[in-house]
Amino acid sequence: MSKSKTKHTRLTLEQERFIRLDAQGLQNPEIAMEMYGITKDDPKYHSLECKFTRWRKHPKYGEIWKDEVDTNLTRLMAKSVRRLDRQVNNENDWIANKASNDLINLAKTRIFGDDEKTVHVAIEGLPDLGTPDDE
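The structure corresponding to this sequence follows.
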């Protein structure tokens, strides 16, 4: 593999940090401040925005972005399940019922996956298609 190809497909730690901050929902000004201590008023800000645009086109961007989102969703899912667990026993019937329904829906997707959403349609008894008979 040539040196230029290797450099293009590898991510630096700086690029990976940018992608992870981007996946967390930070906007360019927030990322510039977090990573470099630079505000939008700084003359260097425009060149950073250009760099961020290039980094978003990196071949590994989607892979790292998805990994960060998956990591955050896993953490949030665990936190949400703990909250639902507490709410199931709430004295307010509405809250307990809502939490119960949410947990049932979560359990159904975990147990049955997307299979229950699949619909198969079969059309039978149609005549063979062809050209009409001339009389």
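The CA atoms of residues 12 and 127 lie 63 Å apart.
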